[in-house]
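Exercise: predict the fold of this chain.
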Amino acid sequence: MSSPSHPTLRPYAPADLPAVLALLDGDRLPGQPGATPELFAEASRGCTEADAPWWGAYEPPDVQVAVGSGGAIVGAVACARRTKDGAGLIPWLHCREDPVVAEALLAHAAAALSSAESVDAFPFATALTQGLEGLPIGRRPVTHAALERAGYAGERLWRYMRADLPRPGLPRAEGVRVGPARDRGASQRLEVVRDGRSVAEAVIGRPVQGVGVLWWIEVDEEARGRGTGRALLGSALDALGGLGATQVVLYVDDDEPPGGERDRTAANRLYESAGFVEVDHLWSYTRRD
């Protein structure tokens, strides 16, 4: 029997869908789409446009729900195994930030993946988000603490930011060529072309529920310091607005200190000056046995 402090876990059933969607929406971050049956079905199959190559290495996840003493669903967790070596994966876990439920869900994952030499938690995006890779520790501190107690080593990877659209105060780039992005499904690639050569590019994702994503902006070294990146940012946000986006999110891999090879000080300055606001920091985790 279950109790308020010790929920019972069982396999997900179709009748659980409304309760599980409510769990997912309870943890939804600003700038992320709402949970829908279609997005949940895609996530349950283990596929997503953003991180399709990663998901292709894993079996479809198994979803378990945690049931409280009154019969209500108080948590849910997904577990999967990598096909080639059996390594474990926890792509998502939701518990309404209840530490006892979080512990029960992680205990199930430990048992289900007990033969795995390593288990990754929140390493890449699912179909339930717009490219959200990692656990937002500012809004999910209980889950973060539960993972650390369970022996997972965490690493900060991304700064998650968002802005409303349109952004009329930005310049627009000249000589922009637009086409499909390689290996990014329905994404678009914008190139700044000068003297017949591409000197900068931006990749944007198809909006979902009015939420667009800027995957990246890259400017060749010789073209930097001339406003090219800022102008390309303006053009990319215009293109997202043309696709129906009313807000945009992006992810900055600024885990390296200033002065390092991947110093993102300039990128952070650009996005902040363009009106992007930090939402949270995203962490991923690994446990090795």
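Check your answer against the key: The mean pLDDT is 92.
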